[in-house]
Design goal:
Layout (H helix, E strand, L loop, with lengths): L8 H10 L11 H11 L1 E3 L11 H6 L14 H16 L3 E4 L5 E4 L1 H11 L6 H4 L2 H13 L1 E3 H8 L4 H13 L3 E7 L5 E6 H4 L1 H5 L4 H16 L1 E2 L3 H6 L3 H13 L3 E5 L2 E4 L11
Antiparallel strand pairs: 1-3, 2-3, 4-6, 5-6, 7-9, 8-9
C-alpha cells in the first residue's frame, strides 16, 4: 500500500473500534476517558479528523469525520472534551502535558516510562539542556511544589509572558512539570507541579531508548493495524528516523511486517475483548 494512498476502508473500520470513533462507544465521563486512554496508550486532546491518531475529542464525538467547529465556545462536544480534560488533570490517573513539539497529549501510566526514555531529562542534564528561564521556574517548583501560573511567574522572576510560557513548555516537554489542576473561580489559571510527585513509580522505571521506541511503535500499531510513512512521527512527535527504528524493531521480532518504505502492518490481528473497552 503506497503511503500516498488513503487508508483502506477495512483498516479505518478497525481503527474506528480501537480509537472509539463509533457512536456505540463514545467517551462521556472521566472514567470513560481514562479507559480510552488506557486502551490506546497515548492520545491527543483536541485534534480532529484532519490529524492522524487517537484523540479524546474524536472519541467524545464518536465519529471518524469529527471536525472542531470554529465557534468552540458554543460547541457541546468541544466543551465536554475540555471539561473531561480538566477533570482528568485533577484526578491524576493519566499523564497530561504539552509533550514533544508542543503536542497536548495524554499518556496511560504504562507508557510514561517509554516516553520519558525518549524525551525526559536527567537532573545532570538540566543545566546544559534547559534555558535559564526554565531553570528559574523549576527552582521555584522544587521549593514550593505546586503553584498557580501567576504565582509561579512572579516567584520565578520570568516577567515576560512569552518567555515564561516557553520555559514552562520546555519543562513539560522534558517531562519534569505537569499541570495538576485548573481553576475557573475568579481568574482562570492552571496549577503546576512536579511530574515525579504525581507519577513517582512510572518515572522511576528505566527503559532504554531502543526499547522505548519499540514499545511506542507497538502501542500505536496495535491500535492502528497499519501505519504509513510519517504517521507515527506525526502522532507522537518522534523524528522519522526514530519512528522507523521503533517499527523495524517490531518487524525483527515478528510482530509486524514491512509492506513498503515506511509502511508497517501487524502480522496478525489481535483479539479485541469488547468487555474491556
Amino acid at each position: 500500500m503506497p503511503p500516498t494512498l488513503t487508508i483502506p476502508a477495512e483498516i479505518e473500520e478497525y481503527r474506528d473500534g480501537r480509537w472509539w470513533r463509533e457512536a456505540t462507544r463514545q467517551v462521556e465521563t472521566p472514567l470513560d476517558a481514562e479507559r480510552f486512554i488506557e486502551q490506546v496508550g497515548f492520545a491527543a486532546c483536541l485534534t480532529d479528523s484532519r490529524r492522524p491518531g487517537p484523540s479524546l475529542y474524536v472519541a467524545v464525538c464518536g465519529r471518524r469525520d469529527a471536525v472542531v467547529r470554529r465557534n468552540v465556545q458554543k460547541d457541546p462536544e468541544t466543551s465536554l472534551t475540555w471539561e473531561l480534560k480538566d477533570e482528568l488533570v485533577r484526578r491524576g490517573k493519566v499523564y497530561y502535558a504539552k509533550l514533544a513539539r508542543g503536542k497536548a497529549m495524554f499518556l496511560a501510566p504504562r507508557m510514561i516510562s517509554h516516553f520519558h526514555a525518549v524525551w525526559g531529562l536527567r537532573r545532570v542534564e538540566e543545566q546544559t539542556r534547559l534555558s535559564g528561564d526554565a531553570r528559574a521556574i523549576l527552582r521555584v517548583l522544587r521549593r514550593e511544589w505546586e503553584m498557580t501560573t501567576a504565582e509561579l511567574r512572579a516567584a520565578s522572576g520570568v516577567r515576560e509572558r512569552a518567555a515564561f510560557i516557553r520555559g514552562l513548555d520546555e519543562l513539560q516537554a522534558a517531562m519534569i512539570v505537569v499541570p495538576s489542576a485548573v481553576h475557573y473561580e475568579g481568574k482562570f489559571t492552571y496549577l503546576y507541579t512536579l511530574a515525579v510527585g504525581r507519577f513517582p513509580e512510572a518515572l522511576a522505571r528505566r527503559a532504554s531508548r531502543d526499547v522505548a521506541l519499540r514499545e511506542i511503535a507497538r502501542c500505536f500499531l496495535s491500535n492502528a493495524f497499519v501505519t504509513v510513512r510519517g504517521e507515527l512521527a506525526r502522532v507522537t512527535g518522534l523524528s522519522r528516523p526514530d519512528a522507523g527504528r521503533g517499527n523495524r524493531a517490531l518487524v525483527d521480532e515478528g510482530y509486524a511486517t514491512m509492506d513498503g518504505t515506511g509502511v508497517y502492518r501487524l502480522t496478525a490481528e489481535p483479539s479485541v475483548n469488547r468487555s474491556e473497552v
